[in-house]
Design goal:
heterodimer; A: 292 residues; alpha/beta; TIM Barrel; eight-stranded parallel β-sheet; 8 strands; globular; B: 331 residues; Dihydrodipicolinate Reductase, domain 2; eight-stranded mixed β-sheet; 35% helix
Chain lengths: 292, 331
């Protein structure tokens, strides 16, 4: 299995996402309203040696991608780890309209790609609904459009979708997703989950290998189902050539001081860490503390 | 059908899903292609054909009553999504039917299973802030953020649409759970922000015979909120509690050693108080409420945390809000 970067800069800090405090989230959203402030943080991270960026396909990510595409030669070494979709866009639409009208709107409203036009010519949603895998592929494409032309290493499925589908216990969805990411994007398939031990066991049962599993991993067990011990055991018995484990939420939204958090992570069998920080001090400190 | 309900309940080791009913042919054809379940377009056919113990009802609220009556005839345990029913009379009838048949009955007011609000309940029940005097229950989201173009059930109040039925019901239930059901509702006002036929924001004042009073304010068209947010503030004669889904701030006039709380301000974060669930999809509370339903069926837990009577109580308050608005809320 291809190696991925050991340390990856995440994006929650830029988009007003904080799982512990809404005030903190709001403060960050204000600070990063100006895209230049986001680019400045990326520059600090690159200067500190980071060469990998995880980015969710939300509305603001479009502008970030444009910037890096326009300056591609300057950032040629940077690897991108997109995650799709931006769940809240879908949550509101689905709540209002229902699932199929939502997919219809996302795929066909204002979409002038050949594939979308062909699909409309064939009967649009009425036909597409009969082919759920094709629908999944088109949804991935719709979300991935903004990343076109960037150096993509892994395409992650957001945990809300991964874990929802994991509950449905359907092999095809996972198998087809992984195959599609490999073939269409020449990238590694990634799955973000808050149920790592269960997901890993299912992937083994389905014989789906070569997947990057990104999961919350912290010593207090925050956003880790069913519990820390099961996580540690699953990681210890993992063969990294089958599944690359990437830790996220390592500080548990700030509940654990960085030093303690990474002392714990460094003892775990994880191959990579994605972290969110926005100050030079925190970025440098995090890099120095991670010794996986 | 309930998209997340299926995923969560399917993860329970003691549950076997036999069948799903949904009028959408497209949804049912996808389901039957990939899942080991029988599918029905009409719930009546499902109830007639399937040999089952329990049913999860996740339809628009105006269908809840006939479905649950059908389930009661078959002797089924029922979990139904909020707001229980669209008419109070129907809710009361279902309470009485299920009180008689002794089967497990639950309404999906999920905040009761949230880590933070569960902790607030514990603190208030233990009189940490003394006797409750006033409260404020608020909820915000950007669910409806465009002018109304839909003709779906959400745009009609008769089918349970509008912010009062759909969202304020959560804020009201939280008041019922943490304080009590109010004796009187006054000062109701509605705002239309994007919707033509239903209200997008509501505020009301709740009064209690024992002197407690409080307000609710719910707005589902506030784009400053990235995701739905509940906030509750309770003021007592010994302190104050402010909570949202992420943290609890507690001010105490004097320290409470038993609960390890000092005089003045204390903050408990979600990371201090969460309890893990076996399988996570949307939030611990969503798993916990459905697993609680199964625990009640299996007799592991004796008392349901949010039964039909609780659902009817919330509807009673909703009824009072609408009648207060009709009588006093218009100029």
């Amino acid at each position: 299995m291809e190696q991925i970067d050991k340390i990856i800069l995440g994006d929650n800090q830029f988009f007003g996402i904080n799982h512990m405090s809404q005030e903190k989230a709001q403060e960050l959203a204000e600070k990063f309203y100006n895209l230049q402030n986001i680019f400045a943080v990326y520059q600090i991270a690159f200067d500190a040696g980071i060469r990998a960026v995880m980015l969710n396909s939300n509305d603001r990510a479009k502008d970030i991608c444009n910037h890096f595409r326009e300056n591609k030669t300057k950032y040629a070494e940077v690897a991108w780890y997109p995650s799709v979709p931006y769940p809240h866009k879908y949550a509101n639409l689905i709540a209002e309209k229902g699932i199929l009208p939502t997919i219809n709107e996302v795929l066909f409203k204002g979409n002038t790609t050949m594939e979308a036009l062909n699909m409309i010519a064939k009967g649009g949603m009425a036909v597409l609904a009969k082919d759920a895998m094709k629908m999944m592929q088109m949804l991935v494409d719709a979300e991935m459009k903004m990343f076109k032309g960037l150096n993509i290493k892994v395409v992650f499925l957001q945990n809300i979708i991964t874990d929802l589908m994991l509950g449905y216990d359907v092999k095809e969805v996972f198998f087809e997703y992984c195959e599609y990411i490999r073939k269409k994007y020449n990238a590694m398939p990634g799955l973000i989950t808050l149920n790592m031990p269960y997901l890993k066991a299912k992937l083994e049962e389905w014989d789906i290998k070569g997947v990057v599993i990104c999961t919350s991993f912290n010593k207090i067990g925050y956003l880790m189902s069913p519990d820390v011990d099961t996580y540690i055991q699953a990681a210890n018995t993992n063969n990294p050539t089958d599944y690359t484990l990437m830790a996220m939420s390592t500080l548990a939204s700030g509940a654990i001081p960085a030093k303690q958090a990474y002392e714990f992570i460094n003892q775990q069998q994880v191959q990579s860490v994605v972290f969110g920080a926005s100050s030079e001090k925190n970025i440098k400190e995090t890099i120095s503390l991670i010794t996986i | 059908m309930g998209i997340t309900h299926y995923s969560i309940i399917n993860s329970h080791p003691n549950v076997h899903i036999t069948s799903v009913a949904d009028p959408s042919g497209a949804v049912m054809s996808v389901m039957s292609k990939y899942l080991p379940v029988r599918t029905y377009k009409d719930y009546n056919d499902l109830l007639k054909t399937e040999d089952i113990d329990a049913v999860l009802v996740c339809t628009p609220p105006n269908l809840h009553y006939p479905i649950i009556m059908g389930a009661a005839k078959k002797g089924l345990h029922v979990f139904v999504e909020k707001p229980f029913t669209s008419k109070l009379t129907e809710a009361r009838e279902l309470v009485s039917v299920y009180r008689k048949n002794g089967l497990v009955n639950q309404v999906g007011y999920v905040n009761r299973f949230n880590d933070v609000f569960g902790k607030v309940k514990e603190l208030v029940s233990n009189n940490i802030i003394g006797k409750t005097i006033r409260f404020k229950s608020e909820m915000f989201s950007c669910t409806i953020n465009k002018p109304d173009e839909s003709t779906g059930w959400r745009s009609k109040r008769e089918s349970g649409g509008g912010v009062v039925f759909e969202m304020a019901s959560h804020a009201i239930d939280l008041v019922n759970y943490l304080v009590d059901k109010p004796d009187k509702v006054i000062g109701t006002s509605f705002s239309h922000i994007y919707s033509k036929n239903v209200e997008d924001a509501v505020s009301s004042t709740f009064l209690y015979k024992n002197g407690i009073s409080g307000t609710i304010y719910v707005n589902w068209s506030d784009s400053s909120y990235r995701k739905p947010t509940n906030k509750i503030e309770i003021f007592g004669n010994g302190g104050r509690i402010l909570a949202d889904q992420y943290s609890i701030k507690i001010f105490l006039s004097s320290a409470n050693e038993l609960h390890n709380l000092r005089q003045g301000w204390n903050t408990l974060y979600i990371t201090d108080i969460f309890k893990q669930v076996p399988f996570y999809v949307r939030g611990n509370e969503f798993t916990r409420q459905l697993y609680h339903f199964i625990d009640c069926i299996q007799g592991i837990v004796k008392t349901n945390i949010c039964n039909f009577a609780d659902g009817a109580n919330t509807l009673e308050v909703i009824d009072s809000i609408f009648s207060d608005y009709e009588q006093n809320g218009k100029i």
